[in-house]
Structures are given as C-alpha cells and as structure tokens.
Amino acid sequence: MDETGFRIGGKTQGLHVACTPLTPFTRVCARRGSLLANVVGVVVHDHGKPYDTMEDVRPALCDAHHLREPKALVEIEKEDWARKMQRLLRRACHAANLARERQLPLKPRLIAAFERRSDVIVAEGLAFHEAQPARGRGKRRGRAPRRT
Predict the structure, then answer these.
(1) Which of 7, 11, 137, 148 is the most buried (most CB within 10 A)?
(2) Tell me, what DSSP letter sits at residue 34?
(3) Coil, strand, or helix at residue 6?
(4) pLDDT tens-digit series, residues 120-144
C-alpha cells in the first residue's frame, strides 16, 4: 500500500494504491492519511503513521523505502555508514530472492549474521550523528534547524 498527494482542480488530494499479486486498486480521496477499511493480511508500507492504526494486518516495511532513506546521506552528506547499510540491505535482499527461487528458507545463521551486521552499522551511524556539533539558531527564534 502506498499513497501520495497531488492536486486536482487546485485542491490537494490523496492517491491511494493497494496491490495484490493479482490486481491493483487505486482511489482518490480528500485526505492522504485515510486508509482502506477492512484490510486483512500482510500490508507492505513505507513507515507512514496511519498504517500503525490498521487492525488485523501484519505490517511489513518496504525495502525500496529502506534503500531510499540513506540515499541522501550517501550522496549529499557522504556518510560512509549509510553506504554500508545500503550494501547490507541489497545483499540481504539478494540472499532472500535466491532462497525464494530455490524454494528454501533462509538459514537462521545467515539471518543472524545480517542482523548482527545491521546492529553494528546502526551503532556506527548513531555514533556519527551524536558526534556532530549542534546547529546554532543564530538570531532566529523558534526551534533550531534540523540536520538533513
């Protein structure tokens, strides 16, 4: 499931998409955050908060979004830990795809290795950001600007 905002007749609308292996469903509604009712099963989504309110679903987070999140950190900020995370996510996806093609489950030791490596990379990223100097407000009022 996904949604995006766009304008129709000068008003912002929400375009919602829900796909199954057999069929896509799209709808336009006035609010981007309003979700389909009576959905059951696994719902793959993008971490959007409205999805947390859905009952009777098993959430799965979208790997395309996981790969896109560190993209700016790699391309703009040149943060090496984000590049390592992208590489790990691609390797894990490749391993899962190979296992699926062979109709075999991923080996628990391989899953554990991916999880350990992920934990190390996340710790590296957190340490990097905690070491960054605070951004000053200067003479402006309000909250200090956030980093990218």
Answers:
(1) 137
(2) -
(3) strand
(4) 999 999 999 888 877 665 666 777 6
